[in-house]
Design brief:
The chain has 7 helices and 7 strands, in the order βαβαβαβαβαβαβα. Helix 1 (19-32) packs across helix 2. Helix 1 (19-32) links the parallel strand 1 (2-7) and strand 2. It has 184 residues and is α/β, with parallel strands linked by helices.
Length: 184
């Protein structure tokens, strides 16, 4: 199973979930044979990815950079949280547009999207997943854009327009239960 991970690129001090819990979730994913797709950045994707890589898991990072040097020097993104990185090769796209554009293939490749905390980039990835008819799992205790999306989806949606399924789970442990039972 391929799980796209949307989450904040800088861990929040007010989140109910700490870095160690994210790291351990990544290790759990690796042990379950779950491939993770991330934005190859800091924060939640970094901690979960680092945990998965440490346990021998596969983490495909989608970088906004055109190469490794830009990934590290311009975007200040880490390398050790991914087992492989796909670089965005369109030289004509602006540096800011690359953040948006790199998310599209990540979401399209995924079987489902898991959302943890987040800000504008996470919100954008949630909307891409919705428009692509993906299953979206929001961990409610993580807060941020994830919780805002879930609250607004419940308020605004009519029957699933795009074939999407949006599910809220309370905790990381509930997320593990969901992923254990999920069939692609």
């Amino acid at each position: 199973m391929k799980v796209a991970l949307a989450g904040i690129s800088k861990l929040s001090k007010v989140s109910a979930i700490d870095a160690q819990t994210y790291f351990e979730f990544g290790q759990w994913c690796a042990k379950q044979g779950i491939d993770l797709l991330t934005g190859a950045c800091g924060g939640v994707p970094y901690e979960v990815g680092k945990g998965a890589v440490s346990a021998g898991g596969r983490v495909i990072g989608f970088s906004p950079a055109t190469d490794k040097e830009l990934h590290v020097k311009h975007y200040d993104h880490p390398l050790d949280c991914c087992s492989e990185i796909i670089y965005y090769k369109d030289d004509d796209a602006s540096m800011n547009s690359r953040f948006i554009l790199r998310s599209i293939p990540m979401i399209e490749m995924a079987d489902l999207l898991v959302s943890l905390d987040g800000s504008w980039g996470t919100m954008y990835e949630l909307i891409i997943a919705l428009l692509n008819g993906k299953t979206i799992v929001v961990v409610e205790e993580s807060g941020g854009a994830s919780q805002l999306f879930l609250n607004n989806y419940e308020e605004l949606h009519s029957p699933a327009h795009y074939g999407e399924t949006v599910i809220g789970v309370k905790t990381i442990e509930d997320l593990k239960d969901f992923l254990s039972d999920y069939k692609v």
